[in-house]
Amino acid sequence: MSDVLAAGELRLLAGTEQGRPLDFAGHLAIHGELSLPTKRKDDQWRSAMLGAIEASGLTGRGGAAFPTAIKLKGAMGWKKRPIVAINLMEGEPAAQKDSVLAAFAPHLVLDGAEVLGAILDAAEVVIAVARDNPGAIDSLNRAILERSGTKRSRVDLKIVSPPGRYVAGEESGLAAWLDGADARPTFRPDRPAILKVGGRRAYVENAETTADVALIARHGGQWFAGAGGGLGTALASVSGAVFESGVFEVPLGTTLGSIVARAKPRGRITGLLLGGYGGTFVGPDALDAPWSNDGLRPYGGAVGAGVIVVFDDSSCGIAEIARITQWMSHESAGQCGPCAFGLPALATDLMLAANASSSGRLENRLTGLLAAIDGRGACAHPDGVARMVRSGLRVFAADLAGHLGGRRCAASSSPTVLELPKNDEVLEWR
Ligand code: SF4
């Protein structure tokens, strides 16, 4: 399978190799003009655009990997003009990809927002950036200002800034905030979400997916599928026990090991967390697997939000799982039983395990807690934590056995390799 991209093969990050953001002139020089319809509801243009997105095989890069063309087709049938919300919340602490796009290629995100707005004949297009991400907000505002005099689009773009909480970026939480409520998720994971803002349906799209739409609008679906064995490229945020954490654009299907090698691992790799903090741990045997949902499935993993966190023998897997759980427990909206009671209890028990200060019943208690959390939240947050913990305890089973037997490993008091922002004492939801 293809290797990581050389500088000249970059697509989303083309022109940013020198670490300089692309202004509007630079953006047009690299990507060329974008052709947008001059009238509302140009059916010929809309169906050509939908056909290109369908041919591209593009799937959502925010985590769910749902086919973008199917999602768009559904929304094109809505009676009332919708609100389009580009989701640049990036609540995953280890994810940087959407922020990197906003900082270095903001016009690609804005182009994609205009294309989506025109396809859906949107009443309004907003770009939601967490308010604790001022760099991304400034960059996008500057880019909007730069193109404001060009009269190249019928679509007005506006930046909005919800609170930067982990679950505020979940699309139902984002829609709730846009509708004037707290940014707390509102739907059940097993039911299709109908999101409404001001009486209109809301179409929420991840920022990287939106930037991909801008490329497909220029170059077509076949071109997009020409990388990654038909899957296109995607952005991977690599962090953890590496010397050079960063965001890398790679063809989907590149081996996990070759992506990780770009970030220069520090020591012997003992495990990797894929997708995000609500993702899945895999063992080092997965390094040979293609980084794609199909390639990672046999290992229980998925690409998710493009997060790859590397763990090595300098840190204790059990202590790291406990830290993530504690952080995730604090980041819940605290309005459902598994988040209000289950996650804090799980975090406490994992801390006991990490400190090897538990009674022999701890393993049973952990199993019982995980079963009690599953499928009982209004959103997928607690399920994600349970999945992360289960997979982590599997990958670090030998460490867990040692800790439960009272043998704390030498690394359990080492500093974390994780990106863990401080949980604010006062939770802000509006
Ligand atoms: S499951 Fe947790 S995060 Fe999701 S809505 Fe309920 S309390 Fe909030």
How is the topology of this model organized?
Layout: H1 24-31, H2 43-56, H3 68-76, E1 83-88, H4 97-104, H5 106-119, E2 124-129, H6 134-148, E3 157-160, H7 171-178, E4 196-197, E5 200-206, H8 207-219, H9 221-225, E6 233-240, E7 246-251, H10 256-262, E8 269-274, E9 280-282, H11 293-296, E10 307-312, H12 317-331, H13 337-354, H14 362-373, H15 381-395, H16 397-404
Parallel strand pairs: 1-2, 1-5, 2-3, 6-10
Antiparallel strand pairs: 4-5, 6-7, 8-9, 8-10
Helix pairs in contact: 2-3, 4-5, 4-6, 5-8, 12-13, 12-15, 13-14
The chain binds iron/sulfur cluster.
The site of iron/sulfur cluster has 14 residues, from helix 15.
Could you characterize the architecture of this molecule?
This protein is of the alpha/beta class and 430 residues long. The chain has three domains: 7-225, NADH-ubiquinone oxidoreductase 51kDa subunit (Rossmann fold, 3-Layer(aba) Sandwich), CATH 3.40.50; 228-312, Ubiquitin-like (UB roll), CATH 3.10.20.600; 317-411, de novo design (two linked rop proteins). The chain is 40% helix and 13% strand. It is built from 16 helices and ten strands. The protein has helices at residues 24-31, 43-56, 68-76, 97-104, 106-119, 134-148, 171-178, 207-219, 221-225, 256-262, 293-296, 317-331, 337-354, 362-373, 381-395, 397-404; strands at residues 83-88, 124-129, 157-160, 196-197, 200-206, 233-240, 246-251, 269-274, 280-282, 307-312. A five-stranded mixed β-sheet has the order 3-2-1-5-4, sandwiched between helices. Strands 7-6-10-8-9 form a five-stranded mixed β-sheet. Helix 2 packs antiparallel against helix 3 (68-76). The radius of gyration is 22 Å and the shape is globular. The mean pLDDT is 92. Iron/sulfur cluster binds next to helix 15.
